[in-house]
Amino acid sequence: MPSPTAGRILSIQSHVAFGYVGGKAAVFPLQCLGYDVDVVNTVNFSNHSGYGRFGGSRATAAELAKMFELMELNGLLLCERLLTGYVPGAEALAAVKDLAIRMKQKNPELIYLLDPVLGDSGKLYVSPECIPIYREALQYSTVITPNWFEVEVLTDTKITDPASLRKALRVLHETYHVPNVVISSIPLKVWLRAALPSSAQPPHTTNTDADFLACIASSTEGTPGSEGGTAPSAVHARCIPCLPGYFSGVGRGRCSRRRPGRHQTVTTTARLSAHFQHSNYQHLKASPPLTSTAKPLGTSSLPRSAQSHLVRVSLRTNPFVWRWISVRSSLK
Amino acid sequence: MPSPTAGRILSIQSHVAFGYVGGKAAVFPLQCLGYDVDVVNTVNFSNHSGYGRFGGSRATAAELAKMFELMELNGLLLCERLLTGYVPGAEALAAVKDLAIRMKQKNPELIYLLDPVLGDSGKLYVSPECIPIYREALQYSTVITPNWFEVEVLTDTKITDPASLRKALRVLHETYHVPNVVISSIPLKVWLRAALPSSAQPPHTTNTDADFLACIASSTEGTPGSEGGTAPSAVHARCIPCLPGYFSGVGRGRCSRRRPGRHQTVTTTARLSAHFQHSNYQHLKASPPLTSTAKPLGTSSLPRSAQSHLVRVSLRTNPFVWRWISVRSSLK
Q1: Do A76 and B46 touch (CB under 8 A)?
Q2: 20 to 30 Å CA-CA from A307: which of A240, B8, B152, B216?
Q3: Which domains, from first to last, does chain B contain?
Q4: ipTM exceeding cut-off 0.85 for this assembly
C-alpha cells in the first residue's frame, strides 16, 4: 500500500458550482492520474465571473488560517505537493502564503506550484495589495504559471521585445529565486515570433498576432552557469494555434471579450495532448515519477466516458505543468 | 455532441478538505462514470467531524438560496438529476428543499436522490427542526437512502421486528410517496435474519449481530397491486459481512465508536463491487441508460491508477444507488 503522503497534493483554489475553472478544472484530472488531492475552496461561487451574474461566498483569512491550523493539529497536512490558485483578497492570500512558508520549512522537498492569479490582458482583477504578497511567496515556489500580464506585474517590466522578456525571466529567477517559470500564454507578436528558433515557429502563412499564443517555460534547474551567467536558464517555447471554439464554463458575456474562448479552448486541447503524449517521457530515458500511482496514460487506456469528460474539462495550466515539473524533477 | 443536460447531476452536499465523505466521496466516481456534476458545497470543513477537531464554514440559507437563484438566472440549472446530502441546519435545508420542489415542478422527470442525513445508531446529529423539512421533501424524491435510524425518525416507527420494518416501508411509500427506498445499513439482528429468504442469508456459522449488516431496497415502481394491496413493494435485501478495516477520511477518535470503521469499509467495498458488476446489467436484457456517457465499466477498463483511487475513495451510498435507480428507470 502506498504511503498516504506519496504524491499527495493540497490544492487551494476557487470553486464554482457550475463549470470547470480553478479547483473544478484541476482536481478531477489530477485524481484520474492517481493523486490524492486535498481540496481547500477559497471561494464557493455559483459560476465563473464571466457570466453576467455570479455570487456565493469567499473564505476569510481567519477561516483559511483556522482550517490550515486544524489540518496541521489533526496530522492531515500530509501532502508533498502544494498547488495554489485564486485567493480572494490580500489578507486571505497572506494566510495561504504563510501556510506555504510553513510547509516549505517543514519539508524543503515540497513541490509548490504557485499560480499567481492577478489579472489578464492588461488588467488586474485582484487588489493591488496582493502584488507584494505574491512577490514574497515566489521564493518558496518550485514552479509558477503566470500569464504574460502577471509576469509584467510581478517583475514591473513591460514585455515588448526579446530583451524585456529576458529581463523579466531573469528577475523571476534571480531576484525572486523561482527555479521554474511557465508563462502560460503570451500573444505571438512579430518580435516574439522572430525570436523563436525556426523549429518552434508556426507556419508563415499566418500573419496576425491573434492567430497564435506562445507558451514559454524557463528553468534554471540543471542549467550549467545558471548563477549570473549570460544564459541563466533553459527556455522552451511552444506555439499554440488559436481556433474558434467554445470554452465551457466561463460564460459567454463579458468574459468572451476579456478572455477569448477561442484561445482557451485550443490552449486546453494543446496542453491536454501534451500531457498525454507518451513520447514526452520516452525520450527522457527516465521513468516519470510516481509510476505506481500516476502513470502517464495513453488516452486509449482511459475509458471512453472519462476521455470525453477529460476533453470537456478545462485542464487549465495545472496538470500539464505539474507533469512537466515532475519530469524535470526526475532528471535531477 | 451530447446535450449539456444529458445525465447532468447537481450534487448538494458537504465538502471536506481532507478525506472522502459527502461530495468528496460522491463526485469523483460520478465524474469517472461520465457525468457532468455541478457541485454546491453546503459546508467547507477541514475534515470529517470524526476527528477530534474540525472547522471551517457553513453555507447559510441566504447564501444557498442566492446561489440557486443565480444559477437559474444564468440558465445553468441544467441537471436532470439531483443529489442532496448533508445540509447544515433547518433553514439551509429548507432552501435546498425549495430548490428541489422548483426543479421537480419544472421537470417532472427529474431523478432526485435524497439522502436524509439526520443521524445514526440511535442519535440525531442535526437539529430536530430538520425532521419535518425532510418529511416534506420526501414526496419529491425518486429514491432515498436513509440508514435504519433515519427510517425510524422519518416514520416515527421503532424497527424491532418484520412487522415494524414493513410498517416503516409502507409509511415511506404510501404516506410520503417515496417510490424507491434504500435502507443503506441495518444491523442483521436475529429477527431480520429469520425474515430473509434463505438465498439472501449469510452462512449460519456466525451468530452475533455485529457480524453482518443488511442493505434493503424497496420499490413500488413496476409492482402490480402497489396501491394499497398487501404487497406494496418489491423488496430486495443483501447482507454485507463486517470485517475489520480502516475507513480512510472519517477520523479515528470519537468516530470509531459512533460509526464503526469496519462496517463502513466493507459496505463500501460491497457497494463498489455491486456497482461495477457487469452482470447487474446483462441479466436485465436492457441497456443501462446513458450508454454514451455512462457505460458500466468493468474495472479492468479503468487505468490502474484510477482503479486504486476508486477503491481508496469511499463511494458511500450514492453512486451505487444511482446506478440502481438508473437501471430501474430503464425498465419502466
Answers
A1: yes
A2: A240
A3: 9-331 (3.40.1190.20)
A4: no
